[in-house]
Amino acid sequence: GTEVVLEGRTYRLDCPQAQSGMVCLQILNTKNLTLRGVPGQTKILITQPRTAFLEIWQSDSIMVQDLTIDYEIPPFTQGKILSVGDQTLVFRPDPGYPLPNSTFLTSDIFTSPGAHGGGFLFDANQPIIKRTSGDYLPITEPAIDRGDGTWTIKTPFSNLAAAGDRLAYGSRTHFGIRIAFSSDVSFIFFILF
Fold it and tell me: What is the mean pLDDT of the chain?
């Protein structure tokens, strides 16, 4: 097979962001390929938050190893829930994360009837997904800026949240990796932030 080895350094990928679903690296119709970095030293920094790192399509025996993938601008926002109302949450984004009205968080959501964004609730006291919330918390309308650094988030499942819980959310159209119609694909010592 073929092995591509990346040096132990940070690679900045300024990939297209013309539309959701753009991918920096595609492996198409390929067999017996290894993409490898140097353990703990090879990092890929993606500069566009709406761009995925990797798509593997109709390929076989692909291995990706010893890589850390991160985004210069996170493709989601996260923060703390300050209070819970009837189908609403008051949310304060953490410093360094995009605001809920950032174009890449809203442009793919709320554009057609039934479309929505969503996210994950984390327990205030533990860094794990809150078990009462299932896998996904739908957000049904764009967030409303309250003018004081907080935002009103609308969700029909606000009753699953509590003040102090953490929320991470974005558009469901973003993905870091997509694998389709492929077999024997493995990721070893691979981190995707």
Answer: 87
If you count them, how many residues does the chain have? 193
Task: Give dist(CA 105, CA 172) in Å, integer.
Answer: 9
| pLDDT at residue 131, rounded to an integer | 72
For residue 52, pLDDT over 90 is answered with no
Instruction: For residue 102, count other CB atoms closer than 10 A to its CB.
Output: 19
Supply φ then ψ for residue 176, to 5 degrees.
-90, -40
13: tokens are 């990928």
Can you tell me the distance from the alpha carbon of 71 to that of 75, in angstroms, rounded to the nearest whole number? 7
User: What distance in Å separates the CA atoms of residue 29 and residue 37, rounded to the nearest whole number?
Assistant: 22
Cβ–Cβ contacts within 10 Å for residue 16, how many? 11
CB 34 within 8 A of CB 65: yes
Cα gap 117→75, rounded to integer Å: 13
**Cα–Cα distance for residue pair 102/73, rounded to 1 Å:** 11
Beta-sheet pairing, 151-154 with 88-93? antiparallel
- pLDDT tens-digit series, residues 77-100: 999 999 999 999 999 999 989 998
Spell out the alpha helix ranges (H) of the chain. 103-106
Nearest-angstrom CA–CA distance, 189 and 64: 8
Residue 150 sits at φ, ψ, to 5 deg, of: -115, 165
